[in-house]
Amino acid sequence: MSNFHLDIVTPDKPFFSDEVEMVVVRGIEGDMAILKGRAPVTTPLKIGKVRIFQNGEEKVAAVVDGYISVVDDKTTIVTEAAEWPQEIDVKRAEEAKERAEELLKNRRDSIDVKRAELALQRAINRLEVSKLKKFDEKFDE
């Protein structure tokens, strides 16, 4: 399989930069896989996972919104935040999930429902990706 360059950047730092075989992201119209030679595209991303295939292995990171741009043999993902499974603070994500669920359960006119729904989606995504830590750790042995 042919490789192409993938950069993932956040406002804080470059998160990932290397040659990859494929990347799968959740766009606003659903999941999309990027391979070398793909037609140029720029599209917004949803809260979700970035699946990176490199050297026959898969790496997964949690991302928050942003966009993906594919031009020639270079793909760039710009996102508000990106985390590998081992970087996720599970306790903090569980607390954020509980807060968002409580806000949505006890809706008052004063709460921003959309904001609470997005917080819930971010927390659930982070918790799902954090469960992949055990999977990744077996490769590090």
TrEMBL record:
It is found in: Cell membrane. It is a peripheral membrane protein. Keywords: ATP synthesis, Cell membrane, CF(1), Coiled coil, Hydrogen ion transport, Ion transport, Membrane, Transport. PANTHER family: ATP SYNTHASE DELTA/EPSILON CHAIN (PTHR13822), ATP SYNTHASE EPSILON CHAIN, CHLOROPLASTIC (PTHR13822:SF10). F-type ATPases have 2 components, CF(1) - the catalytic core - and CF(0) - the membrane proton channel. CF(1) has five subunits: alpha(3), beta(3), gamma(1), delta(1), epsilon(1). CF(0) has three main subunits: a, b and c. Produces ATP from ADP in the presence of a proton gradient across the membrane. Residues 90-133 form a coiled coil. Residues 4-82 form the ATP synthase F1 complex delta/epsilon subunit N-terminal domain. Belongs to the ATPase epsilon chain family. CDD domains: F1-ATPase_delta. Residues 87-131 form the ATP synthase epsilon subunit C-terminal domain. This is ATP synthase epsilon chain. SUPFAM superfamilies: Epsilon subunit of F1F0-ATP synthase C-terminal domain, Epsilon subunit of F1F0-ATP synthase N-terminal domain.
